[in-house]
């Protein structure tokens, strides 16, 4: 399970949880490892089975150890429970039940097909791995990534309003890679009226990517008819509200499960103050402006004891990366620390189970 947890961290956060899977021989030897690379790609279980096939390994009679209950539904990929049954895997040990209604029930399907199933191994670690995602699923809201491209002194625009481009081309390319993964991108009316951004996902040579996020603008003022963000593809929505909870609820109803909030300062601060941000990505340019628009406004914090604390996030490429001349900082919220260890399988007992002790 430690290896499955480590593998899971290679994936990106977002609409889907981080999941890792390991296939073990009946003797407990590690045969293949897989992880989930984000919405629309193979799940960790299917990835591990594929890896075993690539190596010519016969998976019949093996054990799979996976950080989340194998799914039972056909989403953008097929059901993992079925893939496990077809691969002839004899035992499955997973950590956490899948809380996501359409996907739940994989354990029952496996048992009905004669696969031995146990759950609860490394329960606390696996809950912690995806604590923000569990929170988003339970609250029926999209997973929220907040993106800031800023100078060393936390400015997102100069005093004359110019803000393109604070970041290096490498950071921009990274941001457009994220835009291809997310379901929606959200800015305030202020950014639309000042910058008139397109908010599309583009390749480094400026071509439109195949997958485009929904472009959402939040605020009471109208979005001009000729605003670039409207484009002609129908992937635009105006959310006439200043309430971030309402904005997220509207987006959830539109089918959005991962939203990236891109600014400006009013919108960034609103989501942070409401503690609705799961993941923070900051592109830090080695530039000073001294004046101009600060990244954040008042968060309602007046004393250090009330400061918001974030932790460095090693998932999806690491907590600190160098992108051209910039640093990319990746952080996760600490507000939803997992607490439950109820029903955990003791590690020793689990090891005996793999090798037939149970
Ligand atoms: N470097 C970057 O990453 C980046 C990214 C984006 C923007 N920017 C820069 O940010 C600057 C724009 O900042 P901004 O603060 O004006 O833009 P903004 O946050 O995009 O929009 C602010 C507007 O959003 C509406 N709004 C919706 N909910 C709100 C709430 N809860 N609280 C306050 N306002 C709310 C208000 O307009 P209504 O009256 O319509 O409700 C408000 O005037 C521009 O200079 C832009 O270049 C930089």
UniProtKB/TrEMBL annotation:
Q: What are the CMP/dCMP-type deaminase domain coordinates in residue numbering?
A: 1-110
Q: Which InterPro entries match?
A: APOBEC/CMP_deaminase_Zn-bd, CMP_dCMP_dom, Cytidine_deaminase-like, DHFR-like_dom_sf, Eubact_RibD, RibDG_C, Riboflavin_Biosynth_HTPR
One Gene Ontology term of the biological-process aspect is:
riboflavin biosynthetic process
Q: Which residues form a coiled coil?
A: none
Q: Where are the transmembrane segments?
A: none
What does the note accompanying the cofactor annotation read?
Binds 1 zinc ion.
What the entry lists under Pfam families is as follows: dCMP_cyt_deam_1, RibD_C
Residues that coordinate or bind NADP(+): 149, 165, 191, 195, 199
- Which catalytic residues are annotated? 45
Asked whether the UniProt record includes Zinc among its keywords, one would answer yes
**Record-listed E.C. numbers:** 3.5.4.26, 1.1.1.193
The record ties this protein, via SUPFAM superfamilies, to: Cytidine deaminase-like (SSF53927), Dihydrofolate reductase-like (SSF53597)
Q: Which UniProt keywords apply?
A: Hydrolase, Metal-binding, Multifunctional enzyme, NADP, Oxidoreductase, Riboflavin biosynthesis, Zinc
Q: Which residues bind Zn(2+)?
A: 43, 71, 80
Residues that bind substrate = 163, 179, 202, 262
What GO molecular-function term can you cite, just one?
A: diaminohydroxyphosphoribosylaminopyrimidine deaminase activity
Write down the chemical reaction(s) this protein catalyses.
2,5-diamino-6-hydroxy-4-(5-phosphoribosylamino)-pyrimidine + H2O + H(+) = 5-amino-6-(5-phospho-D-ribosylamino)uracil + NH4(+); 5-amino-6-(5-phospho-D-ribitylamino)uracil + NADP(+) = 5-amino-6-(5-phospho-D-ribosylamino)uracil + NADPH + H(+)
Q: Which PANTHER family match?
A: 2,5-DIAMINO-6-RIBOSYLAMINO-4(3H)-PYRIMIDINONE 5'-PHOSPHATE REDUCTASE, DIHYDROFOLATE REDUCTASE FAMILY PROTEIN (AFU_ORTHOLOGUE AFUA_8G06820)
Q: Which family does it belong to?
A: In the C-terminal section; belongs to the HTP reductase family.
Q: What is this protein called?
A: Riboflavin biosynthesis protein RibD
Source organism per entry reads: Paenarthrobacter nitroguajacolicus (Arthrobacter nitroguajacolicus)
Q: What is the lineage of its organism?
A: Bacteria, Bacillati, Actinomycetota, Actinomycetes, Micrococcales
């Amino acid at each position: 399970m430690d290896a499955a947890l480590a593998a899971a961290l290679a994936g990106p956060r977002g609409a889907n949880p981080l999941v890792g899977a390991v296939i073990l021989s009946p003797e407990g030897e590690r045969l293949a490892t897989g992880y989930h690379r984000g919405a629309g790609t193979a799940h960790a279980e299917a990835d591990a089975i594929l890896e075993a096939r690539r190596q010519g390994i016969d998976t019949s009679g093996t054990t799979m150890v996976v950080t989340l209950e194998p799914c039972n539904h056909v989403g953008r990929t097929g059901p993992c429970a079925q893939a496990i049954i077809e691969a002839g895997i004899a035992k499955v040990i997973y950590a956490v039940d899948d809380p996501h209604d359409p996907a739940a029930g994989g354990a029952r399907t496996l048992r009905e097909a004669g696969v031995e199933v146990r759950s609860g191994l490394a329960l606390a670690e696996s809950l912690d791995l995806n604590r923000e995602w569990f929170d988003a699923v339970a609250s029926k809201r999209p997973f929220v990534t907040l993106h800031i491209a800023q100078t060393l002194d936390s400015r997102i625009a100069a005093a004359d309003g110019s803000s393109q481009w604070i970041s290096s081309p490498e950071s921009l390319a990274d941001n457009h890679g994220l835009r291809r993964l997310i379901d929606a991108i959200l800015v305030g009316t202020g950014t639309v009226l000042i910058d008139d951004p397109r908010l599309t996902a583009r390749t480094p040579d400026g071509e439109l990517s195949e997958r485009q996020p929904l472009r959402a603008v939040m605020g009471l003022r109208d979005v001009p008819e000729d605003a670039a963000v409207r484009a002609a593809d129908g992937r635009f929505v105006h959310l006439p509200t200043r309430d971030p909870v309402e904005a997220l609820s509207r987006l959830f109803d539109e089918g959005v499960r991962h939203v990236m909030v891109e600014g400006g300062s009013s919108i960034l601060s609103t989501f942070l103050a409401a503690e609705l941000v799961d993941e923070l990505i900051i592109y830090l340019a080695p530039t000073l402006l001294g004046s101009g628009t600060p990244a954040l406004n008042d968060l309602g914090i007046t004393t250090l004891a009330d400061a918001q604390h974030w932790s460095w996030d090693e998932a999806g490429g690491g907590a600190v990366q160098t992108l051209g001349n910039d640093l990319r900082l990746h952080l996760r919220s600490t507000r939803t620390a997992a607490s439950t260890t109820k029903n955990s399988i003791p590690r020793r007992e689990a090891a005996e189970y793999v090798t037939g002790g149970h």
